[in-house]
């Protein structure tokens, strides 16, 4: 159950490429977190695309958006869901999702992806604190189903 925030310069994505980006990011999350191809499980994958106005994004202290498209992705995931291999899958597939969504773009894509693991018992869902077995039950993480049977 990731929460993914994507920051991208304004006017880079129209509706079609934005949906392709979101679909690709959800597919990346599912692959990395081992979430089943089930709408009920994937409903817990929240994605926000935030467009950053021109002049509000600096790379090396400069606005580089005439030559580059900077993209920042922040992935909040329950601690214990990802290992290093999972993070590597995530990073690769998130970059692939961005390049596929922007396949007609002439500018080079610069992407930073930050994984933030949320400590067990510090993530609330609808007013209730969830722990890793709860996330495993509702997210369907294939590699963590042993936690569901114990809870």
UniProtKB/TrEMBL annotation:
UniProt superkingdom: Bacteria
InterPro entries: Tautomerase/MIF_sf
Species assigned in the record: Achromobacter mucicolens
Name used for this protein in its record: Tautomerase
């Amino acid at each position: 159950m990731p929460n993914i925030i994507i920051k991208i310069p304004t006017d880079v994505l129209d509706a079609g490429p934005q949906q392709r980006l979101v679909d690709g990011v959800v597919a990346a999350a599912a692959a990395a977190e081992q979430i089943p191809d089930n709408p009920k499980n994937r409903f817990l994958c929240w994605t926000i695309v935030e467009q950053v106005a021109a002049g509000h994004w600096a790379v090396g202290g400069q606005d580089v958006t005439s030559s580059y498209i900077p993209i920042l992705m922040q992935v909040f995931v329950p601690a214990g869901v990802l290992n290093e291999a999972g993070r590597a899958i995530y990073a690769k597939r998130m970059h692939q999702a961005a390049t596929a969504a922007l396949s007609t773009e002439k500018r080079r894509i610069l992407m930073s992806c930050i994984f933030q693991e949320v400590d067990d018992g510090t993530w609330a869902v609808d007013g209730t604190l969830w722990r890793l077995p709860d996330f495993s039950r509702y997210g369907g993480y294939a590699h963590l189903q042993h936690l569901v049977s114990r809870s």
